[in-house]
Write a structure and sequence with these properties.
single chain; two-stranded parallel sheet; alpha/beta; binds D-xylose; 2 domains; 436 residues; binds nickel (II) ion
Length: 436
């Protein structure tokens, strides 16, 4: 055992003072006719939980994530698997997400990296079978290695493009081997610093070419899940092409990829784009492309991806409202989040997930209560009711044109004001449901 001092994490209820217990996440509790655990398919991000050790631009690791082995070896890769599965089991987490290079140390030669990936994936598969833990999604890391300094699909180097394609091929193989539900493209360096050295149109066309190749290959080898774009506006690049949900959807439609792709929306990426989390969820859902969620949160005072564990219950509630209204996710909730640098102990790893899972459990219950209460949905329905009758109905049915409306307006005099937006009253309802 790696986490010897950590018990299995149980639900103890809102009054519990035990830091190693759930206060709100009660896996089998029914919410809107479905157990919580089915509303909330949580996933562990291999890279943060088993990799990130507190390093930042100004200082080295604070946490020990060696798990008893020497880092950079296959023994360490296996120790991470052991740690990961023990961790997920103790928390009742049923999925994981990975990049290729999270699983093994990368060699210079891709043949050797792939051999290592074969070895570790066999090891992981045994654990998956034993525990019933599944893969939510896989991806290839096309941003850390110096070869990707100018991007992967968007690189000016055709050799780098080819190398990226080879990594994607293997990462799709692994995702299929694990029975993963999705395959993610996060365009980590698909963007630019200055137009002085960039052919933006060509770069975007090449990214689309790479994605088409991935879809063709994936479907050929039997991958039935969704491909996802994970939008992010900036960081590491000054300007990234998958800026936000709307931009990514436009790109996918433009290049004929929208049938195979959905979106993986990360809270902290939406807020970096100047949106709320729920905004990007809504944009995805209304286009039928809400696939999966990277559950984390940013800091309003900082301009980068801080990847904090979700704590903001309002945000989680508004997220879950979008998810419930969309009928759930095809993917799940991946904690793409890391404990803060000074939270370096094993307990912190668990307490971080307890916070995230409890925050989303609260969000789910509060969102369900808002829906059951009905006042907010009722208000929105009523707000647009003018389109259910008379001239409004004709507009929606496409029965009138500009001349008809001009004639109608001539007879109207001044239109009545559209009716109060009631923002404050609606916010009061939210608070009443949150705390009443
Ligand atoms: C980084 C991204 C990354 C993706 C997977 O900001 O969130 O972690 O989720 O490549
Ligand atoms: Ni992410
Ligand atoms: Ni991120």
């Amino acid at each position: 055992m790696i986490f010897e001092n950590i018990p299995e994490i149980k639900y103890e209820g809102a009054q519990s003072k035990n830091p190693l217990a759930f206060k709100f996440y009660d896996a089998d509790k029914m919410v809107l006719g479905k157990p919580m655990k089915e509303h909330l398919p949580f996933a562990m991000a291999w890279w943060h939980n088993l990799g990130a050790a507190g390093t930042d631009m100004f200082g080295r690791d604070t946490a020990d994530k060696s798990f008893g082995a020497v880092k950079g070896t296959m023994e360490h890769a296996k120790a991470k698997v052991d740690a990961g599965f023990e961790f997920m089991q103790k928390l009742g987490i049923r999925y994981f997400c990975f990049h290729d290079v999270d699983l093994v140390p990368e060699a210079d030669d891709i043949k050797e990296t792939n051999r290592r990936l074969d070895e570790i994936s066999d090891y992981i598969l045994v654990k998956m079978k034993k525990t019933g833990i599944k893969c939510l999604w896989g991806t290839a890391n096309l941003f850390s290695n110096p070869r990707y300094m100018n991007g992967a699909g968007s690189s000016n180097s055709a050799d780098v493009f080819a190398f990226a394609a080879a990594q994607i091929k293997k990462a799709i193989d692994l995702t299929v081997k694990f029975g993963g539900k999705g395959y993610v493209f996060w365009g980590g360096r698909e963007g630019y610093e200055t137009l002085l050295n960039t052919d933006m149109k060509f770069e975007q066309e090449n990214i689309a070419r790479l994605m088409h190749m991935a879809v063709d290959y994936g479907r050929r080898i039997g991958f039935k899940g969704d491909f996802y774009i994970e939008p992010k506006p900036k960081e590491p690049m000054k300007h990234q092409y998958d800026y936000d949900a709307a931009t990514a959807i436009g790109f996918l439609k433009n290049y004929g990829l929208d049938k195979d792709f959905k979106l993986n929306i990360e809270a902290n990426h939406a807020t970096l784009a100047g949106h709320t989390f729920e905004h990007d969820l809504r944009v995805s859902a209304m286009n039928g492309m809400l696939g999966s969620i990277d559950a984390n949160q940013g800091d309003p005072h900082l301009g980068w991806d801080t990847d904090e564990f979700p704590f903001d219950v309002y945000s989680a509630t508004f997220c879950m409202l979008e998810v419930l209204r969309a009928g759930g996710l095809t993917g799940g909730f991946n904690f793409d989040a890391k404990s803060r640098r000074p939270s370096y102990t094993q307990e912190d790893m668990f307490e971080s997930f307890i916070l995230g899972m409890d925050t989303f459990a609260l969000g789910l219950m509060k969102a369900a209560a808002i829906i059951e209460d009905g006042r907010i949905d009722g208000f929105v329905k009523e707000k647009y009711s003018g389109y259910k009758k008379g001239i409004g109905r004709k507009i929606v049915k496409g029965q009138v044109g500009l001349e008809d409306l001009a004639e109608y307006a001539d007879k109207l005099g001044a239109p009545e004001l559209p009716g109060s937006g009631k923002q404050e009253a609606l916010e009061e309802i939210v608070n009443q449901i949150m705390f009443g």
